[in-house]
Amino acid sequence: MDIASTISLLVGIIGTGIAIYQWAVLNESKKRKKEIQFLLAGISNLSLAKQQAWINQISLLNQPQEAEQLAHARSCVRARDDLSEIQSLVAALEGSIDSDCSATTAILEKTLEQTKLNNQIQAESLKNPTMSPRAANVAPEPEMAAEH
Questions:
Q1: What is the Cα Rg of the chain in Å?
Q2: How many other CB atoms sit within 10 Å of the CB of residue 108?
Q3: What is the pTM of this model?
Q4: Does residue 142 belong to any structural domain of this protein?
Q5: Of 2, 13, 35, 52, which residue is the least packed, with the fewest Cβ within 10 Å?
């Protein structure tokens, strides 16, 4: 083999190696993007749940009569509003990673799927006579209770 062929072969091997390396980096980058996207979606869902918890707490407050009660009510409303802002910001960040595929939607779909499965399991367990609500409320026989 002459020098030009050898150099050409080496350049081809190096080029193939670089292409394989770039392909691996791109695939790893896609995985990382998905991980970050799902992490942000989880934070968004958590802040939305906490926002709802604050809304529930605010609904339990009485009409403020004193300055201290008004300050407490304002701090509760402020916490609710802050969580709303966090949720909006995180949702926007999650959407900017991949606008075509929403991790939040995927999480909600998975939640619905798990809820349906859980409902099926509960329906099946109610068919079991030992798991019926009436069987669970029956007191043990007196002599059996004494043994335990």
A1: 30
A2: 13
A3: 0.57
A4: no
A5: 2
Q: Is the separation of the CB atoms in 33 and 97 below 8 Å?
A: yes
20-48 pLDDT tens trace: 877 777 777 777 888 888 888 888 888 88
Terminal CA-to-CA distance of the chain, rounded, Å?
Answer: 90
Instruction: Please answer whether residues 46 and 94 qualify as being in contact, where contact means their C-beta atoms are separated by less than 8 angstroms.
Output: no
Contacting residues for 98 by C-beta, under 8 A, at least 6 apart? 33, 34, 37
Confidence of residue 87 (pLDDT cuts 50, 70, 90): confident
Rounded to an integer, the average pLDDT of 68-90 is 88
CA distances from 127 to 71, 115, 117, 121, 131 (A): 53, 19, 16, 10, 8
Residues 6+ away with beta carbon under 8 Å from 58:
73, 76, 77, 80
Q: Residue 124 sits in which domain range?
A: 3-60+67-128
Confirm whether 144 is domain-assigned: no
145 occurs within a structural domain: no
In this prediction, residue 128 has a pLDDT band, given cuts at 50, 70 and 90, of confident
d(CA 70, CA 81): 16
